Each structure stands twice: as C-alpha cells, then as structure tokens.
Amino acid sequence: MKRHLGTGLDRLDLRRSAAAVALLTAASVALTGCGRDDDKSAGGEAQSDAIAEGEAKGEIEVWAMGTEGEMLEEFSAAFEDANPDADVKVTAIPWESAHDKIAGAIASGETPDVSLIGTTWMGEFAEAGGLMPTPEGLVDEADFFPGAWGSTEVGGTSYGVPWYVETRVLYYRSDIAAEAGWDEAPQTWDDLKQFATDLEEKGGAEFGLNLQPGQTGSWQSVMPFAWSNGVELTNEDGTEYTIDSPEMVEALDFYTSFFKDGLSAERILDPGELESGFADGSYGSFISGPWHTGLVEDAGLSQDEYAVAPLPGPDSAPGASFVGGGDLAVFQDSDNSDAAWKYVQWLSEAETQQAFYDEVGDLPAVESAWETGELAEDPQLQVFGEQLGSAVSPPSVPTWEEVAGAIDSLVEQASKGATSSEDAVSQMQQQASSIGTGL
Amino acid sequence: MARSGPTKTRHVDPTRRQQAVAAWVLALPFMALFLVFTAGPVLASLGMSFTDLRSVDIRNPLAVEFVGLDNYTKLIGDPLFRKVTFNTTLYLVLGVPLTMGFALAIAVGLNRITRLRGFFRVGFYLPVVTSIVAVSVVWKFLLREEGGLFNTVLGWVGVDGPGWLDDTSTALPTLVVMAVWRNFGTLMVIFLAGLQTVPRELMEAAEADGASAWGRFRHITLPLLRPTLLFGAVITSIGYLQFFEEAYVMTKGGPLDSTRSITFFTYDQWGYGNYAYASAAAYLLFIAIMLLTLLQFRLLREKD
After folding, report:
1. In this predicted model, what pLDDT tens digit does every residue of A113-124 receive, in sequence order?
2. For residue A254, what are the domain limits?
3. Contact map slice: B 130-159 vs A, CB within 8 A
4. CA distances from residue B175 to B138, B171, B179 in whole angstroms, order as listed
5. Which residue of chain B comes nearest to A416, CA vs CA?
6. Which pTM was predicted?
7. What is the ipTM of this complex?
C-alpha cells in the first residue's frame, strides 16, 4: 500500500541498518557454534598508555553531529595553526542516524579517528570494544563536572573526555510567582509543592508545575528527584541494577503526587504547547534544559517575566539534576590515535571550551571555563553552572536505554494512577534485573 | 543401437543460446543486488533470531551463543509483546473490514454517478498521497480535548467528548478511524476498476428478471468482484499488520502502550540493541502475515 512507501524515514533507516548488521552476521547462520568469549567485557580494562609529547601530525578524521558538526572544521583552524602538520577533517552527520552509523563503523572496523558520542551511548560502544580507553594523564578528571566525567566511565574505565554538557533546571514565571508571594525560587521539595500550589491558587495558572507523565525521556525528569534522594541506579562496578529502594519509591511518590493533586497535566503536551502555555500563564513552571531559554523567549517572554533556578532537593537546593551532552572518544581502529587524542585534549582545554561556547553556544564540560567571560557574568547561565556541579549522569552501561524505556513506561503507569509507586519501582527493578546491565 | 527413428540431436539454436546468455547478463545485476541486499539479510536475520546477538557483539558477530527458540519463547511470555499483539490484532480486525466496506460503498456510489466523478475520485484518493506527518499534526489538532474540531462539534449536540488520544480506550479506535480515512482511497480506485468490468448486459438481464438492487449487488457484483476483494483484503491486511507510523507520530505508542504495535515493539527492541530479539519478533509478524494471507486466499478463492 502507498502508505508504506513514502513515509516513515526512521523505519527506512531502521531497515537499512538492520540490513547492514544482518549482512555482517550472514555467516553466523552456519557458524553459531562459535560461542561467546567471556573475558572481552569492558571495565577492568587499563587506561591506555600516555600519548607522546610534541605536535600532532597527519590527518585526523572527526565525526560530529548537529551544529557541532557544521562548525567544528572551521573552529579547528586554531589547532591546525598550532600543529602545522596536522589536518583535521570533520564530517557532519545527522543525530538521527549517528548511532547506527557509529555502530556500523565499529562493526566494520572502518572508523574515523575521533567522534562525538552521545553520553548514553558510551556504555554500548565501549562494551562493543569500539572505543579506546583514555590515555593516562591526558586530562585531569578533576577539571570536569563530576556528572559529565561519570558518563565516560564504563565499568570503572574511562573511554573518552566530556566535551559539552546540558542539564535540567526549574523554569518558572517569576512575575506570577511574585504575585503569589514567592520572591525567590523554592529550595526544598515541600517548597516546590507549595510553590506549584500557590502558582495555581494565587497566581491563576492552570497547572503549577508541568512534569512529563511518563513516555520517552521522562526518566530524565524523574531521576533528578531520585538522585537528590540518594538513589544509585547500579552498584559500583555497574554489574547490577539497584533501582528498588525506599528512596526511589519516595522520589516517585513525590513526582506522581503532582499529577494526583492536579498540579501537572496528565497528558503529553503537543510540541509548542508548553511554551505558549508558559507564555500565557497557564503553566506556572516546568523543568527543562538550556535550549528552553530561547524557546520561551521566542514565545514572547522577557527575562523579567521568567527565571531559572536550580532544582530543589529534599531538604535544600540545589538538588541533583540530569546531565547530558556529548563526549569525545577515539576509536580502537583509529590509525592516528596519538594525534587524535592530542586534538581531544585541545578541545577540552578551558580556553578552547570557552571559545567554542562563544561560537556554538554549547555549555563547557570543563568547570574552569565558567570562571570568566559571559559564562561567569550571565545570571541565567550561572544557574546552569551551579546545577552542573550536582548533576548526575545515568549509568554508562550498554543496556541503559532499554532500562530507561522500562522506567518511562512504569513512570507513566504510576503518574496515571494505574499502579502504586511501590509496585512501579519493584517492577522497574524486576525488568532491569532481567535485562541485566550488559557489563 | 536400440534407438530408432530420427535421433534427437542436442543441437541448440545459436540465436537462442545468445538470447539466453544475454538474458542472464541482463538479469545478473539485479540478481546480485537481490541476493546481497535482500535475500542475504533476510536469511541472516532469520539465523540471528536463533542467537543472543546484541549491539555490543557487532565487532564479533560470530562469537555469540546459539540459543535455539529461546527468543521466540521469551517473546510469547513477554507481557508487552502480548499487549502489542493484541493491539495489532484489534487494529487489523477493526481496520480491514471498515476500510474495505467504506471503500466498496464509495466505489459503488461513484460507479453510479457520471457527473463530478473525477472530482470525487480525486478527493477521496487525496488522503492516500498525503504525508503521514502532516496529516497527524492536523488530526492531533482536530482531536484535541479542548478546542478540537471533533469535540467542538460534539459539544453542539451536548456531548462532552474525551481527549481521544489521551484515553487508553479511545486512542487505538481513533487511530483506526484515521487509518480508514487515509487508506480507503487506494481500495476505492481498485474496486472502481473492478466494478467497471461487471458486464452491463448481465445487470440489465437481472433487472429485467425483476432482481432488486440489493439482489443484483449481492448475486452479481460481489461474486464478480471476488478476485478484486481478495486482492484488497490481502494488501490491506499486510499494511495494517505492520502499522507503525500513525502510532509513532501521533501517540508514541501511548497512553500506557495502548497504541503500541508489533512493528513498534520491534523498532524499540532494535533501538535497544537487542538485534536477535527484534529479529525474532519480526519473524513472528512475518509468519502471521503469511498465515493470514493464506487464510484469505482460502476463504475468498474462486469457488468452482
């Protein structure tokens, strides 16, 4: 039928990559007796040897997605000036196909030297044996936001360097909040509840705080509450999920109480609905990342009408938040890994990070890059900077996306009152345990 | 020599031979592409479905365990897979008869009128060529709980409409309605072509014998249309069993997985890197499509 021909780009991609992987495994029909090699697991692997001194030489092939991909080649001219024998070649690839493209490259051994890797993919690609452990002494772990560094560590070994970050904060209508008697942002969970209630009752908002009632990505709003409450999703070496805990139940209970009390809408909003609703005062506040400053200003709000604040913790702010973004990794199959790591090192220097922020607007993963310039002066950016200090990355294990999917669907059930928080959390644990961390 | 009569020489006509060579040469590029990019992956994914291959194994795809039918038994026990199977079946059972019935009714109607037939034909066919993404955005607006066209109209007659896509009991039927609207055009065109092959003389003769309109439709049109109906049923069922885009764009499979389909499930599993498990799910769907098609051929084939 016609409908299956022209549409569904994603599915076409899916089919194409399915075909690619299927091809690679074609012979496995006959050879499945080979069996698994148990000691090839990531983690426990030593960091790579330190790279040689001196300038980078040769061609460095880089893959990057989104705006980064478009801007990086030109931006790297400064690196090429300092290393005249090096030539940085950037290939921009779209985010939508990046995961499969990198997976395909790792499978075939035809990888670039360096790539931008979404933080939640690190576990999978490292476990697949595609990424090279970060060399000893390349960068200092302490220079980076701890959550961002955490995303590079798979089973205790670091497989890359954080490049840029994003984190979630509380957006609220400061003018409506002032009317409702709030001159500053809520600091504790109790505050947050009262704040949302007041925005509704005194400020006239339809919903005090918009939270995502489950579905894709809702774990990114739920987990900050859980992390603030002391939840650890896996054990130390990432071999077991440890989701079921009284803290997790308490956090989910708190999260879902906003739906039960009518402070959050129980349905998924359409694209653009949140921004326009925030602008006309029907949504008093919401939790989101740095991209939303632009979106709410496009919807017609000025910085006098809305504000951002670190997320409240159970007892004090800032609580934990989610940290996402991108890491830079060098592939095992890179034939110029020394120069590649030098390039990564250069990109993670504080000055480079600051310059990259000026050029592209990506928030630096290096803490000291926030100490001068616009990043230090802009009060809104400072909120993000402060929040990043206590932001946590999800476990870097190969199965995280699948477990996150399970969590999303159970968050939906709990938000809609179809299950209790206790049951939802114990089912999260049950599903996560049966999936396993994959390490 | 026992052989008698004119001996058959194995002489091959040189032109024929050349033609055969040319045919093979011309067919070769397609054959090669087909074997490498279609038959190969299809067989490989079948093999894959009997292993525990995951995305982390891509560097050593051969170093996986053979697990027999484990993926299949796990699927059958997976509550989510059962749910998506139920959803897909419901979509099929509601969608196929509705689409066919609607298409047939419109086709019969259009076959009667002569004025404006082209206009209506284009109008009814139009949804088929629209982009699902554009259509779904518009439908989402129409279906909004507050201020949506459907609920506004229902409000005029005093009915308080629900949030069609936000309720687990209405979301799937709503998608079925949208699918019927979007897909009946293709069948309508096919049925219209089928209706035009029904001989006029037969109809006139029946009319002269006093057969009612319904009687003529029931005993002349429908039997003559049988092959066309079979074709329609098969392609619609195959399409509906693979339903994905509507749910992906409109509801993301929610609320509470009530619009998640088997294809959607497979897509998710593939995304999670469970290549073997996803392949097994795809093969179960493939088997279902095969069985259903066979069944339809059986039920609707020409009765001698």
Report:
1. 999 999 989 998
2. 212-268+397-439
3. 131-133, 140, 144-145
4. 13, 6, 6
5. B256
6. 0.80
7. 0.75
